[in-house]
Design a protein that fits this description.
- With 391 residues, this protein is mostly helical.
- It has a domain at 35-44 and 157-385.
- Helix content is 68%, strand content 0%.
- The chain has helices spanning 35-53, 62-88, 95-104, 108-143, 149-180, 187-198, 202-210, 215-225, 228-243, 245-268, 288-305, 311-314, 328-339, 344-363, 369-385.
- Helix 5 packs antiparallel against helix 9 (228-243).
- The longest helix has 36 residues, at 108-143.
- It is globular.
Length: 391
């Protein structure tokens, strides 16, 4: 899948998508550590003192978070990366070589059918199909460059491991801050500011939409909302394979910087979202979002009161994300699109899809309008604070 469009319309001519051909490898300058490394180190060192200050035990559900990250999110991220590559790269670099390989080695097809049947039987049609596509993609990468395959795998896995550390730290600091003060202390203020600045609130928009839009549309936008980490991981994989480990680490570092800025703002102006203010009876009760929001709000309330009798309250887990302002559901897609800008069709596809993500944010009452503005500002700041080093 070497990306070699000489016109530059889909990316620079020297940008390789298989991680081996035409890619410039740059030595890492250890004398000038990037900002994100310093932020990561600071957050790791300060974690225990922060939890002591919050009067909370430092207990992290690493097994549950690792399972969700390395199994669920990773499989969907690779699937999204394959879809983006199929759209963003020419056919002679994607589908045509796959067809040629199966024509040259017809015995591959029975093995693929057995593999597909097994995965669908184990995981169901949806996840099974994702795993099958992922398997075909990994096999193709191996076929097209067996000699450097291990290096390319490390180019992806090392930034992925860094991102996992970042995610654990971010959820832990959310948990700690929620133990210092109620995470929704400024929600009423942000709701009033929305009404003053935009002449309407998210809840008012959501109430109208709940009575005029079908449940099928809500299912789609809910799906769009929960694809965030899939597309973030896909951008990481494409950046790592196409541009190398160093650029992928810079991508994760940019996300880390955005998270660090958001945590500081969240500590100063703790907000969760509009769903904490209005219990709307018209909300489609079949959506998973409704239960998720209730659990997030309840856990934030328990933490602020230090009611820690329930193990799920004590442990840092996947319910420990409360940051309303700024919206990282805006920051992270913008950073992903920025790093994919070399492949214009991929970036454009993500940008169009993320319009529905913005709709989901509003319709599901996850964020205020000001949160969206704040999320865009944090994305710009994070990108500016992590510039590409001089060659």
């Amino acid at each position: 899948m070497t990306h070699s469009d000489p016109t530059g319309r889909d990316g620079p001519a020297n940008t390789g998508f298989t991680g081996g051909v035409g890619r410039v490898r740059e030595p890492i300058n250890v004398m000038r550590p990037s900002l994100h490394w310093l932020l990561t180190l600071l957050m790791m060192v300060a974690l225990v003192p922060v939890f002591r200050f919050a009067r909370l035990p430092l207990r992290i559900d690493l097994l549950g978070m690792a399972g969700a990250y390395w199994l669920g999110t990773a499989s969907h991220a690779l699937f999204v990366a394959v879809l983006l590559a199929a759209v963003g790269l020419p056919l002679q670099q994607t589908f045509l070589p796959v067809i040629q390989h199966y024509r040259q080695q017809p015995m591959r097809l029975p093995f693929l059918l057995i593999f597909a049947a097994g995965m669908i039987w184990l995981f169901g049609w949806s996840l099974g199909f994702v795993v099958v596509v992922d398997g075909i993609a990994v096999a193709e990468l191996l076929d097209r460059g067996a000699e450097g395959f291990g290096s390319r795998v490390l180019d992806v896995l090392i930034p992925c491991a860094y991102l996992f550390i970042v995610v654990v730290l971010v959820f832990a600091y959310n948990h700690a801050i929620a133990g210092m003060k109620f995470a929704g202390s400024w929600d009423l203020f942000f709701n009033r500011m929305d009404a003053r600045v935009f002449r309407i609130t998210v809840s008012q928009v959501a109430v109208w939409c709940h009575s005029h839009l079908s449940q099928w549309f809500y299912l789609f936008v809910e799906y769009a909302y929960y694809t965030l980490y899939g597309q973030v991981g896909a951008a990481l994989a494409i950046t790592a394979i196409g541009l190398g480990r160093r650029e992928a680490l810079r991508y994760v570092g940019t996300l880390m910087t955005g998270y660090a800025l958001s945590l500081v703002i969240f500590y100063l102006l703790p907000t969760i979202g509009p769903f904490t203010l209005l219990a709307n009876p018209d909300f489609p009760h079949s959506l998973a979002t409704l239960l998720t929001q209730k659990v997030i709000l309840l856990k934030a309330q328990f933490l602020s009161r230090h009611q820690l009798a329930i193990p799920e309250i004590v442990h840092v887990n996947l319910m420990d994300y409360y940051i309303g302002f700024p919206s990282m559901h805006i920051t992270m897609p913008l950073v992903a699109i920025w790093f994919l800008r070399r492949w214009r069709r991929m970036a454009l596809l993500l940008a169009v899809f993320d319009l529905f993500l913005v709709v989901a944010i509003v319709l599901l009452e996850w964020h205020y309008f000001l949160d969206l503005v704040g999320g865009a500002a944090v994305a710009v700041a994070a990108i500016a604070l992590n510039p590409k080093p001089d060659r």
